DNA sequence: CCGCTAAATAGATGGCCGTCTATAAAAATT
DNA sequence: AATTTTTATAGACGGCCATCTATTTAGCGG
């Protein structure tokens, strides 16, 4: 992963609500309706945040009837963790 | 480190120029005049980016005569790496 | 077919962001 | 004291962002 891609992901994670969405999905997939319960934002705003996280490859989605379940994209997350882990102090 | 603090740092790293500043400082401290050579932005813009990185605790500074040398704050960086490393896929 | 639930889209709004030019401040040198 | 170098600050501007309300789309059950 290079700097522009990593910056894109950082920007996506640079909002407390979105970072908490990722934290929640750490425990496994959840539908948007369940995610919404954890926040004090409207449904369209949550949908907007989900879109931003999806567009940079952090989220996968799976439809099941009327619900859509979202989960973390393991590969993108792994590459991003690797990039951040490489940012080490020289001391 | 909690979500709001991590989001603040992510926002600071969510710009390619700023992420590259951090990458450069991985190799040790540098003065702003040296950092500037690596970018195609003006000096005030670089100063602005440095300020944002400093305000979230990522950068330390040390003055030496007319120059100011910037370096990574090891502790902040370590805590942030730890936070990101904890964002793991459930699969 | 209708109504209900879940999610996305459209459009608006206020605010923050990245960048610039111009200027100031601080330190060293002549 | 004047000049040069390095960095910070002020102010402006265009654009993007987070959020909202209103509406639409999609699937399911009666």
Describe the structure.
- Chain A is α+β, with helices and mostly antiparallel strands and 91 residues long.
- In chain A, 56% of the residues lie in helices and 15% in strands.
- In chain A, a hairpin with a 2-residue loop joins strand 2 and strand 3.
- The longest helix of chain A has 13 residues.
- Chain A is elongated, with a radius of gyration of 14 Å.
- At the A-B interface, helix 1, helix 2 and helix 5 of A face helix 1, helix 2 and helix 5 of B.
- The structure holds a DNA duplex (30 and 30 nucleotides).
CATH architecture of chain A: Orthogonal Bundle
Mean pLDDT of chain A: 97
Name the chain pair with the biggest interface and residue counts per chain.
A-B, 38 and 38 residues
Strand coverage percent of chain A: 15-25%
Structural class per helix/strand content of chain A?
Answer: alpha+beta
User: Reading side by side through the largest sheet of chain A, how are the strands ordered?
Assistant: 1-3-2
Q: What is the top-level CATH class of chain A?
A: Mainly Alpha
One letter per element, helices H and strands E, the order of chain A comes to: HHEHHEEH
Overall strand count of chain A? 3
Total domain count of chain A? 1
**Oligomerization state of this entry?**
homodimer
The residue ranges of chain A in which pLDDT falls below 50 over 5 or more consecutive positions are none
Radius of gyration of chain A: 14 Å
């Amino acid at each position: 992963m290079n700097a522009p891609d990593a910056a894109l992901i950082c920007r996506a994670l640079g909002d407390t609500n979105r970072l908490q969405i990722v934290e929640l999905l750490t425990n496994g997939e959840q539908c948007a309706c369940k995610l919404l319960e954890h926040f004090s934002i409207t449904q369209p705003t949550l949908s907007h945040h989900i879109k931003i996280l999806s567009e940079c490859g952090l989220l996968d989605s799976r439809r099941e009837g009327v619900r859509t379940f979202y989960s973390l994209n393991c590969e993108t997350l792994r590459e991003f963790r690797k990039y951040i882990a490489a940012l080490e102090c020289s001391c």
